[in-house]
Amino acid sequence: MNPLRLAIVGLGKIARDQHIPAIAATPGIELAAVASRNAALDGIAHFATLDDMLADGLEIDAVALCTPPQVRRGQAALALASGKHVLLEKPPGATVSELAPLTAAAEATGRTLFATWHSRFAAAVEPARAFLADHNIRSVTIEWKEDVRVWHPGQEWIWEPGGLGVFDPAINALSILTRILPRPVFLTSAHLAFPANRAAPIAAELDMADTEGVPIRAELDFLQTGSQTWDIRVETDAGNLTLSSGGAKLFHDGVALINAKEAEYAGIYRHFVELIRAGRSDVDATPLALVADAFLLGRRTIVDPFEY
Ligand code: NAP
Questions:
Q1: What is the largest CA-CA distance in the chain?
Q2: What pLDDT is attached to residue 137?
Q3: Could you tell me the domains of the chain?
């Protein structure tokens, strides 16, 4: 079977850091083109925009949309209408409501739509899910604190409406949470801190619960310097389970069970190829809905202006 021919749209940080190496390492798919207004790759067909690429007629089976969430819906709709399979970076869009029409378009055209949650492919996630299916959960605490200046240097889109601010990384925690817990989760209250000059929050506290009343607390910060924290702690009747380093490590009562090298994007591309071969889509809006609910329900505080 010929490898799937994929185009990357938006050659920014995540496309370079993760997508290009993961595509190269995945059997069944190859990078055939790039659509980027500002950059090109040696030896790979280049177009300034997705529209130009589609108009050219170059043979492409699928696109990976590595652009900011605010522009992804239009690109996804265009790509699906042109008969391409579509991989969406996280978050899958700037709104929850834009996803249903995209899913319907994928179904109507018989193409795959894959809304990726890269953190769900971290090594600790499936073992944690299996453990929690068999034990009583008492509480969950999320600490997701990183330095925006280190991880998102100069990314102005993150502070625009739909850019999500601190929820851009924190939605990864919510994607893990909603995968490992055995029951649905909903938001009960939130507090969001907005810099005076920005349209997205720089810090947040969330209180959530599952349908059995298990309390879930999340503390999110975009200004943490020094050591960075991407931890989820679950207190159970069989001890404490901690996923740290974004889910790369798993501890049970302090004893290390998993200490993996990061391989999330290899998992993403393996799954994308499987979905396409099976004629299926995979779109879960649950983490994005929790973020939307935080914007709906959260009390807002205005804090110091933020500049890079
Ligand atoms: P980025 O470095 O700003 O790259 C995004 C790219 O999208 C830009 O380089 C630009 O590419 C294109 N772009 C920007 N604005 C556009 C517009 N208005 N219209 C069309 N294209 C536009 O951002 P990133 O960090 O790679 O993040 C992209 C997505 O990946 C985000 O949703 C983010 O949450 C997700 N993600 C990021 C990370 C990370 O560590 N950075 C990790 C996981 C997921 P061209 O100049 O090539 O056109």
A1: 60
A2: 98
A3: 4-115 (3.40.50.720), 123-260+292-303 (3.30.360.10)
